[in-house]
Amino acid sequence: MMTLDIHKIRQDFPVLDQRVNGSPLIYFDNAATTQKPSVVMEALSHYYKTDNANIHRGLHTLAERATAAYELTRTKIKEFIHAPSSDQIIFTAGTTGSINLVAQTFGRANFSKGDKILISNLEHHSNIVPWQMIAEEKGAIIEVIPVDDRGVLDLEAYRNLLDSRVKLVAVNHVSNAIGTINPIAEMIQLAHAHGAKVLIDGAQSIAHLDVDVQKLDIDFFAFSAHKLFGPTGLGVLYGKRELLDSMPPYQGGGEMIKEVSFEGTTYNELPYKFEAGTPNIADVIAFSAAIDYVNGFSKEALFQQELALLAYATEQLSVIPGLRIVGTAADKIAVISFVIDGLHPQDIGVLLDKFGIAIRTGHHCVQPLMKRYGLVGTCRASFAFYNTFEEIDLFVKALGRTINMLQ
Amino acid sequence: MAYSIQETQNELIEEFGLFDDWADKYEYLIDLGKKLPSLSEAFKTEENVIKGCQSRVWLHAEKQGDHLVFEADSEAVIVKGLISMLIRVLSNHTAEEIMKADLYFIDQIGMSQHLAQTRSNGLLSMVKQMKNYALAFSAK
């Protein structure tokens, strides 16, 4: 196995090299957003300095360069998730934007009164609320796949919930709050056996797990660029061609049309049908650099580094009296959610920040999951491959001092 | 005669001036939080919850003569410490004094980070809510 030179890798991420409140920054909030390698910033600035133009319309050289770079990212994403073709890659504003697109187009065209949408108890609000909105409009019903005390989905209950009224199963690949990796291959097979389509929220898996949308037979896959070391404000929706073709357009405007007259409008083909208006050109182009950066490593080597960090942190944290890890599934990405007896997560987060340590505290946009565990929130440390074992030692030490200060 | 809002703020600035490092400062703040009497359960109502804080914060206001008296509580002890200071500065003053108060002490004791406009920090919401109560009482 290829070994990673973490020291060298860290130099690619300039943001990591700073002091926060007098201490070296320890960034353990990678599930919220990952840091960006210099090549991404350089690509962004290069585009604005040399190629800035609106795409697809202009005949001039700059417009051609910008268009080519924009479309190259689409091709790279196609390869990254093993999609059959680039025109099934649609740019959106983020995972949330991608899910809303499917809810408002596929949902609007396919849901009727009494139809069911299955989601899970692990979902982020972004994979709950868009379905509630369209379900209310269409008279469809939302049912929830339960989760056990470890944070593992109850597949037996899932099987029982599946019937011919289920039109869509919308689940995350990985839980943002507690890190569980869901058995999506099996879940997709089961859904398809009942004639249901499946949307996978890949926001938390895209940077860590290999995703092959064809092998997994995924109908819709959504993710955000900023969680894959790319820019914010950009997301991707992959969809099967027959589904995307059959769906009505989402937003109206420029780019998504073929011909417009006051009598009526015909729509452009994929993917432009779903990309109304001038898109986020600069960030799409810069995202290309993020994908190249990740492709420069073995994805397996990066994931093994993260799993080693997870195992070490889990071991170190487990010996702290009163600390309980929330989410103990066997299959997890490098996310540790925890609570400490008698202490509020917010207090822990505020003090750790004074030590220069960035973790996330609160409900993590999964209030139904917090309710399931009877918690107001947790502390969440989430690692990326550029984190180190020394950082975990410093974190555990700071956490110990934090607990002493609060008790 | 009770202290003016300005005098109490200066007193807090002096108290916090004794600490050299952040840890001592926060230990003092945590201590203030622990010492703040709990709000009676009867006042921990949904109506009294201040929106926009990561922990639940309850604020109860009552008019005593021409003065406004605040009581508050939170699940998080640092937040409670912050509230305790706000109560010390603003409680038991007239609505007009509260509305006009310029809370410079927060910045001067090095706690302005808690005024940040993020969803997790509620000090701004607390100050706003206290001033809203003052406005509501003065209008009566």
Secondary structure topology:
The complex is a heterodimer of chains A (407) and B (140).
Chain A: H1 6-11, E1 19-20, E2 23-24, E3 26-27, H2 38-51, H3 61-80, E4 89-92, H4 95-110, E5 116-120, H5 129-138, E6 141-145, H6 155-161, E7 166-172, H7 184-193, E8 197-201, E9 220-224, E10 235-239, H8 241-246, E11 257-261, E12 264-267, H9 281-295, H10 299-318, E13 323-326, E14 335-340, H11 345-354, E15 357-358, E16 360-362, H12 367-372, E17 378-382, H13 389-406
Parallel strand pairs in A: 3-15, 5-6, 5-7, 7-8, 8-9
Antiparallel strand pairs in A: 1-2, 4-10, 9-10, 11-12, 13-14, 14-17, 16-17
Helix pairs in contact in A: 2-9, 3-9, 4-5, 10-13, 11-13
Chain B: H1 5-17, H2 22-35, E1 57-64, E2 67-74, H3 77-90, E3 93-94, H4 95-100, H5 105-108, H6 123-139
Antiparallel strand pairs in B: 1-2, 2-3
Rg of chain B, Å, rounded: 14 Å
Alpha plus pi helix count of chain B: 6
Any low-confidence stretches of chain A, pLDDT <50, length ≥5? none
* Main sheet summary of chain B: 3 strands, antiparallel
CATH superfamily of the largest domain in chain A: Type I PLP-dependent aspartate aminotransferase-like (Major domain)
In the residues of chain B, how many domains can be counted? 1
The CATH architecture of chain B comes to: Alpha-Beta Complex
CATH level 1 name of the largest domain in chain A: Alpha Beta
Question: Order of SSEs of chain B, N→C?
Answer: HHEEHEHHH
Number of strands of chain A: 17
Gross geometry of chain A? globular
Give the tally of β-strands of chain B.
Answer: 3
Q: Total number of helical segments of chain A?
A: 13
Shape of chain B: globular
Q: Which regions of chain B contain 5 or more consecutive residues with pLDDT less than 50?
A: none
Average per-residue pLDDT of chain B, rounded, comes to 89
| Fraction of residues in helix of chain A | 25-40%
